């Protein structure tokens, strides 16, 4: 079903979103101009996701149901897991731009699965691919790519949200050839169903941020448990949990990177996360616009379809403009992430750009889902409509991954550094 994706995976070639090669020009081509391969990925992935994943959304939202067959039966076999993981480990070997095209379509069709996919594919699998040892990659990436394993990231804690580094309380103590982790992680996407988690803990609390390390924790490790599955207003069906580590035994071989490198891994991951999750927000916003556009042409009042009223047209125009503007910034951020050198993340232009992309896409998502509900009127206020499901989920984009306030501080801070 996905010839372009399959060709890229089998050859190890990363397809590109840009219509012209950078090598042929002294300046990059305009962002948002899709090549033939990218358009093929976009069309094929949307058709597949709408056919297979969109019908699952209603039950996921109504029952907070996790469709456990999706990973091993629908996404893994089609090459939709491990999008940026090298082909030698079972991934598609795509660049971030090409993977972003697919990510947007997944969230367009089923935003609840989209956020779980982001946690699995970007926050877990991609981090292992970038920072893992050959043995760690061999142990975990094939399963994360074929869907037999579900991945997650354990960073946030009850007392460490926006201040994830400074307020982190989870510790890891070396005991011979193992570490023992103690602490709690909360608001962890995929936490209740994850088989492997990338977990951050302080190995040297006295060193502050320089004493944080990263670990690969398996569900079956002694001392690990899921305290509860959290009940949330949006993104229902994407499991969110509280995780507890009570002298959790982790082999020393599962240390990701060296001791004390956790902060740098985390910060590079956060920039990538903000760029990647931005495509999900854009997908939700686009879905909201499409649903609003369709309904405005069907709904009649005062003897005419409501799309003929200028106030409705103004809403549609504002939604379109917000989406297209934010999408351009998201594509720019993804392209910058692809070109990012080791140690470059967490500061400077890439830090500012990724925060800006996430800020713009989240605000566009909030605008579009709110206006979609307004256009749908009374029907939009009903819980069982898709626009209502999108509206309830959109708020998370302003909170998770560093709140909009934190994103603004990052952007302003980097701007002021250049001004001094």
Note the topology:
Elements: H1 3-11, H2 36-52, H3 57-63, H4 70-75, H5 96-109, H6 111-131, H7 134-146, E1 151-154, E2 171-175, E3 178-189, E4 196-202, E5 212-218, E6 224-229, E7 240-251, E8 255-256, H8 262-298, E9 300-301, E10 304-305, H9 310-339, H10 348-376, H11 386-394, H12 404-419
Parallel strand pairs: 1-4
Antiparallel strand pairs: 2-3, 3-7, 4-5, 5-8, 6-7, 9-10
Rounded Rg = 21 Å
State the order of secondary-structure elements, H for helix, E for strand: HHHHHHHEEEEEEEEHEEHHHH
Percentage of residues in helical conformation:
40-55%
CATH hierarchy class name of the largest domain: Mainly Alpha
CATH superfamily of the largest domain: Butyryl-CoA Dehydrogenase, subunit A, domain 3
The number of domains: 3
- Sequence of strands across the biggest β-sheet: 1-4-5-8
Q: How much of the residues is beta strand, in percent?
A: 5-15%
Ends apart, CA distance between termini: 53 Å
Determine the mean pLDDT: 89
Question: Sheet bearing the most strands, described?
Answer: 4 strands, mixed
